[in-house]
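Class, look over these structure tokens:
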Amino acid sequence: MKFQIMLKILTLLLSKRKITAREIAERYEISVRSVYRYLDELTICGVPLNVARGRYGGITVADTYKLPAGYFTREEYSAAINALNAMASQIGDANIISAREKLESRQKCERTGTSVSGNIIVDGGTWGDTKRFSDKMQVVEQAVNEGKSLIIDYISREGEHSKRVIDPYVLIFKQNVWYVYAFCHTKQSFRTFKIGRIRGAAFTGGTFEKRTISRDEIPLDFYYPTDKLISVTLEIEKASLADAEEWLGIENIEPRGKSFIADVTLPNDSGLTGKILSYGGAVKVLAPQSLKEKVIAAAKKIKDIYA
């Protein structure tokens, strides 16, 4: 009985945009305390639930959460749901209503895809990622296109975990990383959020009117202000030229003798050292000396680990 109720609660959450614990308790004739216990167990099972109070209060499942795809096409789902809606309005049978809700929840799970603006295939996840990154992109893209507010579960670069309501304005792709530029209700200002750091996202049910913003208003330095950038000169072997062009931009690399030279400005962080080392010696730092020393120290540390 316990697992049947848990499954019913999950199905209900997937079919509704938002619902309160009291509504769930009344529907299944259990206590509110039991509802929260079931919600805790669903969370342990990996279901990304959002429990919010106040203006956006209620329980939701992240729109990025998908159940395994079924055998119905979108058209078949719509036809079946319409038929069940008609029957429910005439008969009001609890089983028909339950079947309709299950189909609605599966229809939500069928809204998958990897396209952005209809023409770009996006897969920024790891191998075997089962489209989780693309699912996030789809939800954020829909919010941008349709002016829908989102509640996101966000983890910052510093490890700060927060839930924020945002109004997404535009998607940005830079250095092989996707961002969303949005108005943050928590900070009451426009912020740039990295899609890869969004653990889950769900529509609040609210919409917003986009104000006109110019290209110059959108900060594209993101987490790297001028004092955190460094001018670098790199020597690249021909065998690694193609990979280096994709990283640095083909316009920033020119032939010089038997090798290739790149004069670029890059974020001055630990990721830069790791990126250079990933080329296995095929990319050599010519300047500055400080970066040379960082790469040498990191290489020695790796050697000591495997010695």
Observations:
- Residues 109-115 have pLDDT under 50 and may be disordered.
- The domain at 226-306 is CATH 3.30.70 (Alpha-Beta Plaits).
- The first strand starts at residue 49 and ends at 52.
- The two ends are 57 Å apart (CA to CA).
